[in-house]
Design a protein that fits this description.
The protein is mostly helical and 310 residues long. The protein folds into 2 domains: 1-172, no CATH class; 173-308. 61% of the residues lie in helices and 3% in strands. It has 14 helices and 3 strands. It has helices spanning 48-77, 81-104, 106-120, 122-141, 145-156, 162-172, 195-207, 214-222, 224-231, 233-242, 247-252, 254-260, 266-278, 287-298; strands at residues 22-24, 29-31, 46-47. It has a 3-stranded antiparallel β-sheet with strand order 2-1-3. The radius of gyration is 31 Å and the shape is elongated. It starts with 21 loop residues before the first strand and ends in a 12-residue tail after the last helix. 21% of the residues are buried. It binds zinc ion.
Length: 310
């Protein structure tokens, strides 16, 4: 299958993960997808925050009714006018303190209620996400890759399993990647070696090197043997070259860089020299000596390296 050219929409960001959860009250089904309406019955989803607030409001109402009832009983059962006043005043004080306390603890009450709901509906949430996942699978089958990826991306924000990560990567590998796409790499790193992931990471490296983070380089080093077998030595070399992007990475992966030093193009070596010489206080291990040696052997008469040749 030839790669598809698609347009991916921007990801919907929320402060908390739970805010992505919504529910179709008709089907009693949860979803984490971006859709505003239930894909089964078409009714509008209700966000989890609104759901919790409704439960909270209902609880408050019930409690207020109870208080009112107790006060009324007090009034009705009062033997004298004086006790009637007493029960009225007591009821009023109780009501006011109840309202004040509720407002003071509103936020923590909200989270308590939310936790309770998430715990109680855990199984239903799970099966809702499973349903979302089936929808994504159907999209892949029909070769609707953009909506499939967008669904998996939303699910991936909720479930950090290797299975979801690899499914996302597999869809991405069928898409023509462009630098203007909102791509992710670090959140997709699986816990074991995966050929599809490495394939994707190498593609990303080609279009946006800034996505190759410390964790990603560490992954390449950890599974280097398998990567060399599947993708050749050049892939490792490119990653080593990418780690020259930041001083921090050079310190962290100095041994790895050292291995491929002599294969780097001139401008990379120049960049490395610049960083090494402008940070003499850093312990670069054997990298500094090896770079000096390389410069002496290869660039001794190159004017660009003049200030690094002693
Ligand atoms: Zn529904």
């Amino acid at each position: 299958m030839a790669k598809q050219a698609v347009q991916l929409t921007k990801k919907k960001r929320t402060k908390y993960r739970y805010q992505k959860l919504k529910m179709c009250k008709k089907c009693n089904r949860y979803s984490v997808l971006k859709d505003q309406n239930c894909s089964k019955c078409g009714s509008a989803y209700v966000g989890i925050e609104r759901l919790v607030k409704t439960i909270f409001k209902n609880r408050l109402l019930t409690e207020a009714m109870w208080i009112l009832m107790i006060v009324s009983i007090g009034i009705v059962a009062a033997p004298t006018v004086q006790t009637l006043y007493y029960s009225l005043i007591a009821g009023l004080i109780f009501c006011i303190s109840y309202v004040i306390l509720t407002f003071v603890f509103m936020k923590s009450e909200f989270f308590t209620q939310l936790k309770r709901l998430l715990r109680a509906d855990f199984k239903r949430i799970q099966s809702g996400i499973q349903f979302d996942s089936e929808l994504a699978k159907a999209d892949v089958k029909e070769e609707r890759l953009a909506p499939a990826y967008e669904k998996l991306r939303e699910i991936g924000d909720f479930i950090y399993s290797d299975q979801v990560k690899i499914r996302r990567v597999m869809v991405l590998n069928e898409i023509i990647l462009r630098s203007d796409m909102e791509l992710e790499l670090e959140p997709l790193i699986p816990s074991t070696y995966d050929k599809d992931f490495v394939h994707y990471a190498l593609e990303v490296l080609r279009i946006n090197r800034t996505l190759i983070t410390k964790k990603c380089i560490a992954y390449f080093i950890h599974y280097r043997d398998a990567i060399v077998i599947d993708f050749g030595m050049d892939s490792l070399m490119t990653v080593a070259g990418t780690s020259l992007r930041m001083k921090l990475y050079i310190v962290e992966f100095s041994e790895f860089i050292e291995e491929f030093l002599e294969y780097f193009p001139k401008e990379r070596v120049l960049r490395l020299c610049n960083i090494l010489y402008s940070n003499p206080e850093v312990d670069w291990g054997g990298l500094l000596e090896k770079t000096k040696h390389l410069v002496a052997m290869k660039y001794n008469y190159d004017p660009d390296f003049k200030r690094f040749v002693s």
